[in-house]
Amino acid sequence: MLLVSNTGSSEHRLVGTIDTEQVFDTGTMEPGDETTIVVVPEGDLKIADLNSDREVTVTVTPRNADT
Predict the structure, then answer these.
(1) Residues contacting 1, CB < 8 A, separation 6+
(2) CB neighbourhood size of 45 (10 A)
(3) What does the pLDDT read at residue 66?
(4) How far apart are CA 46 and CA 56, in angstroms?
(5) 16, 39 contact by CB (below 8 A)
(6) Position 63 pLDDT exceeds 80
(7) Per-residue pLDDT tens for 14-62?
(8) How many CA atoms lie within 13 A of 30 on its CB side?
(9) What is the CA radius of gyration of the chain?
(10) pTM, whole model, 2 decimals?
């Protein structure tokens, strides 16, 4: 799970894709909004902010059952 918070002063909208499959879209988040994202597929998750054109890539791996 990933908690996403808009701590800025403008709108943001995050979209996440693994390979070419979209796995989430937060919709427009106003300042102060937050949401929780659950990502199930493994792979390199590209998270793009459609309002600022910023991107980051996070590697998603299976959770170890012992943790």
Answers:
(1) 36, 37, 38
(2) 20
(3) 63
(4) 6
(5) yes
(6) no
(7) 999 999 999 999 999 999 999 999 888 889 999 999 999 899 999 988 8
(8) 0
(9) 13
(10) 0.82
